[in-house]
Amino acid sequence: MALCIYLVPWEPLGHPLGTLGVAAVLPLIVVLTWWILQLPPLRDGPRQEVGPRLCTWHFCRSPNSGAVSLTGKMIPVAEFKQFTEQQPAFKVLKPWWDVLAEYLTVAMLMIGVFGCTLQVTQDKIICLPSHELRENFSEAPCQQLLPRGVSEQMGGLREVSGLKNNLDLQQYSFINQLCYETALHWYAKYFPYLVVIHTLIFMVCTSFWFKFPGTSSKIEHFISILGKCFDSPWTTRALSEVSGENQKGPTTGRATATVEASAGSGKANEGEKEKVLVEPEKVVTEPPAVTLLDKKEGEQAKALFEKVKKFRVHVEEGDILYTMYIRQTVLKVCKFFAILVYNLVYVEKISFLVACRVETSEVTGYASFCCNHTKAHLFSKLAFCYISFVCVYGITCLYTLYWLFHRPLKEYSFRSVREETGMGDIPDVKNDFAFMLHLIDQYDSLYSKRFAVFLSEVSESRLKQLNLNHEWTPEKLRQKLQRNARGRLELALCMLPGLPDTVFELSEVEALRLEAICDITFPPGLSQLVHLQELSLLHSPARLPFSLQIFLRDRLKVVRVKCEELREVPLWVFGLRGLEELHLEGLFPPELARAATLESLRELKQLKVLSLRSNASKVPASVTDVAGHLQRLSLHNDGARLLALSSLKKLAALRELELVACGLERIPHAIFSLGALQELDLKDNHLRSIEEILSFQHCRKLVTLRLWHNQIAYVPEHVRKLRGLEQLYLSHNKLETLPTQLGLCSGLRLLDISHNGLRSLPPELGLLQSLQHLAVSYNALEALPEELFCCRKLRTLLLGYNHLSQLSPQVGALRALSRLELKGNRLEALPEELGNCVGLKRVALLVEDTLYEGLPAEVREKMEEE
What we know:
With 866 residues, the chain is an alpha/beta fold. It has a domain at 696-865: Alpha-Beta Horseshoe (Leucine-rich repeat, LRR (right-handed beta-alpha superhelix)), CATH 3.80.10. The strands form five sheets. It has a 17-stranded mixed sheet, with no helix packed on it. Strand 8 and strand 9 form a beta hairpin. Helix 7 packs antiparallel against helix 13, helix 12 (295-315) packs antiparallel against helix 19 and helix 17 (431-443) crosses helix 18. The radius of gyration is 50 Å and the shape is elongated.
């Protein structure tokens, strides 16, 4: 569909209606053109490329007849659409005074265009020679034509009626042009052009910040995000949920406060709360009233939250938008005063009669002319109309300045939105972000209210929760259930944005392991996990409502917490009175490492195992709170030196003690006071001498001693005093020899001396008749004593990576042998007596394939039998 305006040629300029008709119609054409540009492109069937069209026109004046005609040419409106296509988007940042200023500039522009049209279509000035007497030649040529009465006009003039001036058309045109340039005041000549220029400057000042690269990019980004936030289904859902919560009344609010009360703040009313929450496991969560979002809408809302975060960080850094808006407003005010002053001064210069005195006697025979400024009367009216519009425009600019400076526009508070929606975590914003929100409020405050939803972390967490529930269905979670090392049915979730609510539908879960999940708040649905006994929180801070503390305090048996600092351990962990094992991992702050203060453990009445991995300088004093029933204590210090261990003496019931990577150079004397101690692990310390090993005879129940991963160079002879020792670990040290008295530890069943520098073994090892496991791999042994094969109960013999050149046939005497490692030696052949080791199979014989192939076929067949 094409839209075009066709103008027919007008009559000659001699007809006054023709001239005024052109002047009157052209502004209407401009208004119609501006209105057409606001229309959306029209469609005409399948021809989508066809849109509105308008016509351009130009004036043609006949040199003979003087007629003026308008000819037109069709131009698609789409070519002009680029100048206005951004305006509908930017309208949200235009307050009422900017909109009013826009209409005023359009009106002023029409005045200017109308005046310019008159300048183009009509003669600017019409002059006639003045027939005054010679003696009165010095008087003004138009003095007699001023309105002083007819008689006065006729008194000083001679009869000129019907007189011919003997001037042709070209002379008149010459005189008209010359007098127009010299006699007419500049204001009367250029008034319409000045109006157009000033109006264009006003228009540029108003929309400059929409075009300037440093500001337009931020504005376009903001408007794009604002529109998406306004139309997002999540905005409607979040506000609806808040409205539903607010309508529940004060009763629900009190119940919520009771559920979310912390353990520390609720101790005073603990008895009362227990009465109210007698059966917390029966808490049922109500489904939300609002329809769930689909997965696509949830992902779009999630992306919007990220965009809003990044945009806020970017825009709050500066105030270029605020500064630019102030500058263009100040410029408009200055421009307004300048225009007002000079227009009021020069508007009286527009006069209907103009006296013109030029030296053209030689050309025309006259030097004095009386001229008629044909548009003076209309221009004077337009000037006063223009001044009125400028005054109104200036008032709007002054009000804009007042609005800019009477309140802090670089700060924006969402206090009213927080009170209305109940989202108390919506942050206040500043700088350009705040300024744009102030402008948005002038357009429609609903925009900022809906936009604030995407500034709330609570809203974001709800959205994440919704997306999680979509992604992690109960069926998908059941596929991740596995038995852990303790045989419990465990669900392990790692690096999720939150904890899915669907987890609590798996009532069969016995162990819950959460790793790298931020800001967990257990919902009332946790009470559905009636079989839960083990909880692991690895870099996953969690909040537990008081009602759920009552539910878990007698059910949980094992808790593992790993965090950056130990002060981040949730306080409710220390109130689980049914807890049997507590494993904590984290660092003390440097200023607290020496004090090593840990929360009181007095409530943990059934705690048997305590594991602490930190950088403490001493054993925490609170460990003594559980001294009466603690059976296993593990301290892993990651190389930090443990200086004070005197608290260990009070752990009378302790059976197992681990002091790993504690920087110990000697065996602490406090250990020898632990009469019930059965296992001691001093792994990865700096032990060089173990002369204190004699004092272990006071630990009569000690059966396992782990001194591995140290720098021990020798074993003292009084190791023979440890007759009740069953397991001795001395691997990864610097041993080169073993004392013969080691053979007197008759109860020894396991001896690990691998990863040392041993060159030989004492024959007295053959006295260890209870020995079942011997590891001497990664040493420098060249031969084995024959007495070693007298250890008939030996089941595991690890001899790999030594310098053995042969294996004694006596190995066949080890009938109970089920695992033999020989790899990495210098053996040339294996004794066929290996066939007598009835428990030894091929999979447990670690040796080179060539050596194995050298065994007799019947021996190999026997080893390969199932």
